[in-house]
Amino acid sequence: MARQITKSIMREILNDCPRHLLPKFQTQEKVWKFNNGSEMLFAGADAENIESVRGSLAHLVLIDEAGFFSDLKYAVNSVLIPTTTTTKGKILMASTPPISPSHDFVAYVQKAQLEGNLIKKTVYDNPRLHIDEINSLAEEVGGVDSVDFKREYLAEIITDATKAVVPEF
Asked: How far is it, in rounded angstroms, from Cα 58 to Cα 23?
């Protein structure tokens, strides 16, 4: 799945890249190699796929949809932090909030907020969407007060009462 997603993302990213700077995809190694020696590796985080990154060195790790990793804490602490240790690399996480506030991602969000490192953007910050389009999206997912709109479009960490073990809590 990561390979399929990677292809479409890279196609969009490289769409206007000057030809002499275009990376080449190395099928055997599953990396994009640039002429300056830089490499870009994409890996899935489900099942054992995160283990494929183990032992690598990274200057920058970007974790997309971190709020939906099955074991984010393990991936970060046991696999990804070690890849950045000797390079003094950085790890950045991006995601809409997870369905459950007990997900590991929430602790990372809270820590980033305390340290002044959190960047939070909502659908209202997107300059490509007109307010009419936003209102239409809101209606499609149950309205501006719905759990789905608040989580997916306002980036709120929220408990869905229909999925809570004890909804009153």
From this structure: 18
